Amino acid sequence: MADQQYDFDMLVIGSGPAGESAAMNAIKHGKRCVVIENQLLVGGNCTHKGTIPSKALRQSVKQLLRFNNRAIIGDVITPLRYTFPSLLVGAETVVQRQVKMRAKFYVRNGIDVIRGQASFVNEHTIVVAYADGSEQRISGENIMIATGSRPYHPDNIDFNHNRIYDSDTILQMNHTPRKIIIYGAGVIGCEYASIFSGLGMKVELINGRENLLEFLDDEISDALSYHLRDTGVMVRHREQYSSIEAGDKGVTLKLESGKIIRADALLWCNGRTANTDDMNLDDLGVERDHRGQIKVNQRYQTAVPNIFAGGDVIGWPSLASAAYNQGRSAAAAARGKSSNRFVEQVATGIYTIPEISSIGRTETELTTAQVPYEVGRAFFKDTARGQISGNMVGMLKLLFHPQTKQILGIHCFGAEATEIIHIGQAIMNQPAEGNSIEYFVRTTFNYPTMAEAYRIAALNGLNRLLD
Fold this sequence. Notes:
By secondary structure, the chain is an alpha/beta fold. It is built from 13 helices and 22 strands.
């Protein structure tokens, strides 16, 4: 129970994945907890503006592409065309279901959700500003900051113009541009490039780096680049903007290289800023970087021991999957558990069309570290399930040690990659004697399945050792 001098054991600011999991963990262990959320509905940016709506939108486009591809092959059915706003209707339905489900979690567990804007008075006290102008002070023995992030906005771009969008406001676009510029080729930019090209838009994808998603294995990055271009996306590398101008007839992007690109709309996907403004964190001694991201230790503690943080507000890996674990770990540390999990080994999920997932080290990383490795590949076009389902684009790639057979990295590009990766992830997480590529040869997989790609890739890699 809470110390008598505090109203609660745990105050949680934000109801996204990190905040929700922290609150649930605290209440399940007998702690009094309250959640402060500045939006009307629970779920955070993940539910309302990020992961859920964008992936629901992607699924609709994926189904549309599958139908149209088969219609073209059969030459009997007229291909379908949908507008961007019409596909958003389905996404909104999923969002509503998520909100209803998550709201029930709080009711079922007896956790109050207070709607208001929180800021710190001191390390144990926050003041909540309500919409009607009133305020309330609430104290807690420990406080969890899970306020998420928002798109970064440079001062010289007019984001109020109805032709300029960011990754939050794009879900409010009420028309279907003939041509769109996406500035920023990170995960979000590449995902939306896939979605828009799938809807038949002309897409200009502007990348400030040498290659797309440079944290990926080179082969996977190359595959993504090829596939985007194959679907009509114009990818431009090593470019920086000098100005962006919007008018009644369109948007003009001027690049430092001298290029001028015109389109009907522009989507800005170049970085995010943590939602830590106006919380008085600096006065408390909570350390933040230039993007407002909070610095934490491996127990998710800030520089102020009783204040914790997790989710997008602390930066990398900025994934909902990681945020759920971060919230639970922070709550465990707050209640005094001697050990807690610090999220490090995370499977990357990128929902382009087709999708990408990876875990472990890349070829470049292993080469730089002078770690010997061998490669096993399985191409989806060579699997029975891939041929049956029509999902023949992509591959599964296994990196393993030639002597110990230990799996060092798994990289997948293709349909259901974010599901397929978990099979390999489970084996990688076994103790040393259980982490072996030979597991996939010894195991009988259902046939035909996409999971069978592990057996094919393992045999391919082991056969290389015999050459």
